Amino acid sequence: MQDGRTTLSKFLIDTLDRRPSPHAGAGLSALLIDVAAAIKQISSALTRGALGGHYGSAQTFNTNGDEQKKLDVVTNEIFVQHCEWDGLLAAMVSEEMDDVHPVPDKYARGDYLLAFDPLDGSSNIDVNGVVGSIFSVLRRPDGMAEPCGEAAFLRPGHVQVAAGYAIYGPSTMLVLSVGNGTHAFTLERDVGNFVLTHTDIRIPDDTCEFAINASNERFWEPPVRRYVQECKDGRIGCRERDFNMRWIASMVAEVHRILMRGGVFMYPRDFRTSGLEGRLRLLYEANPMSFLVEQAGGLSITGRERVLDVVPRALHCRVPVILGSRNEVERIGRYHREHERGEDKPYTSPLFNERSLFLPEASA
Ligand code: F6P
Ligand code: MN
């Protein structure tokens, strides 16, 4: 480009079309441009806020039992319309559609599969908080019969050929990986271009910041309780430094902060959910985010295994997620292993040990 800036199209042509990767194949850049077009339209709809007439409930429920907001339905439709016509996709899966959506017969079908969460963090919509969209691209397995059904999607996240999210904050950004690092583009609204602003993002290995919905503490497993308690004990505890906590209730916003400055995000297994599955959906939340985090040098685990190695059991299955700065995620994984081996002692916070100000004698 003459002004030295790299637009999303230039980035994709340089990275994919001029140096094709063995996994990606032809057409991926065109598909990602269509995804970006959907994101621009969603960004524009969200910017109108209450004036757009899309606030409030749609009076329907998705397959996970979550109440759908009007904007969940509208943004899902925007994704479908922008991506089903181009001859590159075979089928789609979305948080807001119960079943696989095969590309309709009136359009050509291609070799890619798209899984997406069109509006992540939708409890933030009506309060004008940060929301996002998340997407994951797979290649259709060779030799699979038409039209693609569930089996095509039920593969571990390490087979993804591209993953990304859009964050609709004060600015709209698209964060993307096609397997050669994680890169971020900022939407230049008046021109309509995504411009590369963050090349090869690296998550710092260490951090003093964690994110978890602490209201669920009573349902957590012991390794997560231990980790969070140690963080909260700060410099008087075994970590010997103070930690900060954040919770935005949008996975996109949490992951974005971690990509920008490090941190750990946890939505762990808990005893509320049957089967201890966790809250986040594997295909269109945990997998794409884990791909981006690993491509930026971080880690993403369920507590017991790498998220990208989990074989999905169902389209909308959930999984525990612990991701972010490498050394902290490794530590939490170790706490899980120690717990399984019965090696973790019941944790006593230094707030209540013999040197504490909170001892009954001291406060008497
Ligand atoms: O999509 C699920 C999600 O909204 C995530 O974006 C977010 O991290 C989480 O759920 C918020 O959960 P809670 O309602 O427990 O705060
Ligand atoms: Mn979501």
UniProtKB/TrEMBL annotation:
Binding site for Mg(2+) 1: 95, 117, 119
Pathway annotation from the record: Carbohydrate biosynthesis; Calvin cycle
Signal peptide residue numbers: none
GO BP term (any one): fructose metabolic process
InterPro entries assigned to the protein according to its UniProt record, in alphabetical order: FBPase_C_dom, FBPase_class-1, FBPase_N, FBPtase, Fructose_bisphosphatase_AS
Binding site for Mg(2+) 2: 117, 120, 285
Predominant location category: cytoplasm
GO molecular function, a single term: fructose 1,6-bisphosphate 1-phosphatase activity
Enzyme Commission number(s) of this protein: 3.1.3.11
Essential cofactor(s): Mg(2+)
Localisation: Cytoplasm
SUPFAM superfamilies: Carbohydrate phosphatase
Binding locations of substrate: 120-123, 213
Enzyme's top EC category: hydrolase
Assembly mode: Homotetramer.
Protein name: Fructose-1,6-bisphosphatase class 1
Species of provenance: Paraburkholderia caballeronis
